[in-house]
Design brief:
Elements (H helix, E strand, L loop, with lengths): L1 H17 L4 H28 L2 H21 L8 H25 L7 H32 L1 H9 L4 H4 L1 H21 L7 H8 L4 H20 L1
Helix pairs in contact: 1-2, 3-4, 3-5, 4-5, 4-10, 5-8, 5-10, 8-10, 9-10
Amino acid sequence: LILAALVIGINGLFSVWLRLGLHGKLAVATVRCIAQLSVLGYILVPIFRINHWWLTLLYTLFMLAVAAVEAVSRPTQTYPGMLLQAMPPHAGPARHGCLYGLALVVRVSPWYDPQYLIPMMGMLLGNACSGVAVGLSTILDELSSGRDKVEFLLAMGATRMEATREVVQRASRMALTPLLNTMNVVGIVSIPGMMTGQILGGSDPAKAARYQIIIMFLIGAATGL
């Protein structure tokens, strides 16, 4: 772990050398990464052992809240009630995608098995969080810079959807671009984390690839919705 952290330290040295001002943020992010993953390991042990639906659901709600807070903290433009409005884009697609994958594709029994539900929900929420953050940031920036155009269209009788159609289209493209790039190179340039973990754990690579394909499709659906 220490040897791996030293590699991150090289980035910090580059930040100091190039005067990027990122070494402090990099140090904080490194400490948070170590602390959060370590705590996660200890939290999941009793959840896996108890294996009750209400405890699993409670933890997934906590994950949802953190994802929403993280998504709304990235845009430079904000407005009142932004956090509450960011919850549904995370909750709906991630929840439905996760339940669909567990019940119909992976066919886990019971459906609330934390060994499957929590990791899958984490992957869906993590990617949905990035998509929502990029899309939300793009929409707010576009509306701020193009406010006069939107107000002109509204004054001319356009509906809210018509006045903001171009903004929504650009934001959707921006939000989906990272996912499309990942799907285009997955298996050729990169091996995703879930598949890597299964292979390192001794699973059959072909079976691990099938699981990863399922996850990629569910991530795509959750991010797009």
